[in-house]
Design goal:
The protein has helices at about 5-20, 20-70, 75-100, 105-120, 125-140, 180-185, 210-225, 260-275, and strands at about 145-150, 155-160, 165-170, 175-180, 185-190, 195, 200-205, 235-240, 245-250, 250-255. By secondary structure, the chain is an alpha+beta fold. A hairpin with a 3-residue loop joins strand 2 (about 155-160) and strand 3 (about 165-170). The chain is elongated, with a radius of gyration of 37 Å.
């Protein structure tokens, strides 16, 4: 038997001897009772502080959430702030519980800080997404339900979390975009305002009557209930093209009615032009043939 094994056997033998000794058992029991009497109460109080702290943190977080919902604050901002408040209060109660249990909180925080630095370096991309998410939520560049174009993708915002933004595209695809790529790119929020301007370009032939075409277009706009009276729609010649005279038609509509109104106006203009004998030309070229003797 080697030296290590012999030491282990001797230790076990000594333990058996001590356990067989009534004085040793009595001393062990006294030490255990002393430990429980000195530290058991502190540990019990620490657990109580932690349980009460968790309950208080949850109640305060829910209260803040209810107040913000009543004040009609955006859902995404409400959830984010309530979550931050909950974890901030819970962290404070955890530190208080550790101190109550007799743990050196200063040393614990130092160790936790060093560990946090190492984790931060390892998860720098994730933390970048978190920082970007905080900025997006605080500055409220868009909210749930807005139709936006972010990081080259267009869709309706379904969720804005601390790390990513979820979009639903018009063809019902789910797109998840990291927040860091959003904050570093151009953000187009189509739903930011209640009204939008329709930009239509209607081409007519050079032989057609411009005033007649403008009159037909105006009557169509006047008959469309979704077109706003203010600002007043613009109907003007905007360009003399190679094959057509381009009339710029720029009415204002509600943001929610944008696409439906655009499709309806284009159809009505085509039908009305056909009835009025106004042509809508397409690009064409005239080829002249010369006979060479």
């Amino acid at each position: 038997m080697n030296g290590t094994g012999k030491v282990a056997v001797d230790a076990m033998s000594q333990m058996q001897i001590d356990l067989m000794n009534p004085d040793s058992v009595s001393k062990f029991a006294e030490d255990a009772i002393a430990f429980v009497s000195v530290n058991g109460l502190r540990i019990l109080v620490a657990l109580l502080v932690l349980l009460v702290g968790r309950l208080v943190s949850r109640q305060i977080s829910n209260l803040v959430k209810k107040v913000m919902i009543k004040a009609k604050v955006d859902d995404i901002l409400t959830t984010f702030i309530a979550t931050i408040i909950y974890y901030a209060l819970l962290s404070a109660f955890v530190v208080a519980a550790l101190g109550q249990a007799g743990i050196n909180v200063t040393s614990f925080l130092a160790v936790l800080g060093a560990a946090g630095l190492a984790i931060g370096l390892a998860l720098k991309d994730t933390l970048a997404n978190f920082a970007a998410g905080v900025m997006l939520i605080l500055f409220r560049m868009f909210k749930k339900g807005d139709y936006v174009t972010i990081a080259g993708t267009s869709g309706t915002v379904q969720e804005l979390s601390a790390f990513y933004t979820e979009l639903s595209t018009p063809d019902n695809q789910r797109v998840v975009v990291p927040n860091s790529s959003i904050l570093g790119a151009v953000i187009v929020n189509t739903s930011a305002h209640k009204t939008r301007r329709l930009d239509l370009i209607i081409g007519i032939g050079y032989e057609d009557d411009i005033e007649k075409a403008k009159s037909v277009i105006k009557s169509i706009l006047d008959a469309e209930d979704r077109v706003l009276n203010f600002p007043e729609p613009l109907i003007a010649v905007g360009n003399l093209g190679d094959s057509s005279i381009d009339i710029f038609v720029r009415p204002w509509v509600g943001s929610a009615d944008y696409w439906a109104t655009k499709f309806a106006l284009l159809e009505k203009i085509k039908i009305s032009f056909d009835e009025a004998g106004i042509s809508i030309p397409y690009p064409q070229s005239d080829v002249h043939m010369h006979n060479v003797e």
